[in-house]
Amino acid sequence: MKKGNPPPALMGDKPELFLLHTCPFSWKVKSLLQHLGIEYDEVQVNPLKTKKQLSFTNGWNKVPVWRETDGEVLVDSTPMMKEIDSRYNNGELWMVGDSERRDKWIEWVDEHFKRATIPILYGGLVSALKTTIRVSKLEKFGFISKRLYAWAGFPIMWGIIAKKRIKKDGRKPKQLWHDLLDDWCDEIGDKEFFGGEAPSLVDMAAFGYMRSISPFSQFSQLEEHARGMAWYRRVETTLKI
Length: 241
Ligand SMILES: N[C@@H](CCC(=O)N[C@@H](CS)C(=O)NCC(=O)O)C(=O)O
Known about the structure:
Layout: E1 16-19, H1 24-36, E2 41-44, H2 50-53, E3 65-67, E4 73-75, H3 77-89, H4 99-122, H5 125-138, H6 143-169, H7 173-188, H8 201-211, H9 219-223, H10 226-236
Parallel strand pairs: 1-2
Antiparallel strand pairs: 1-3, 3-4
Helix pairs in contact: 1-3, 1-8, 4-6, 4-7, 4-8, 5-6
The protein binds glutathione.
């Protein structure tokens, strides 16, 4: 077998989640699986080889990907979460509360939390370099591409992608997160979770985005938001695996 990642073509005896360790969408699904206590195998793909390693998805080529033991494939994190909840949990995390509110807020979370992730990780020169070095350590790159990514990745992420997003929004990345967490916590009100007494699928999605920042030092900027963090820790305590 070639050095590096094993070919993920063979199916195991558990469902599999193909992911990148630093991908927010992957963390959404992983958090849901851990909350429901579903047993699965994790396959960490090489970020530069997604096309090859995910060739069984017929051209989707993005993570996360969920593969059932019979080979059936689910893609796209939010529809994937709904489907997993429906198959393994009778849809109880999604079919909760007012559906209009739920549909509005899952869209809000996906739209806003997604956009805020890159600026906080790559918004400054030093933080962008720190992030790419950390990503190169956390992800399963090959020997050369690990080093190449750590140094060549950051000018792209910082200079091109993050700068553009920050300019468009106009706020500092930390301010943007704190504003979003204000809106999110205001919506939760005096309840424990968006879902009320227990987290719903919308909580799990929002939690997953935030959690994807947790391996990085910039997470401390989110930790300064007391209400947001109190909710985050409450969701965290519901994870079973
Ligand atoms: N809408 C998709 C987005 C997935 C996505 O963009 N994943 C990124 C990693 S965070 C990816 O795999 N990018 C590789 C590519 O676009 O080629 C979802 O929610 O699952």
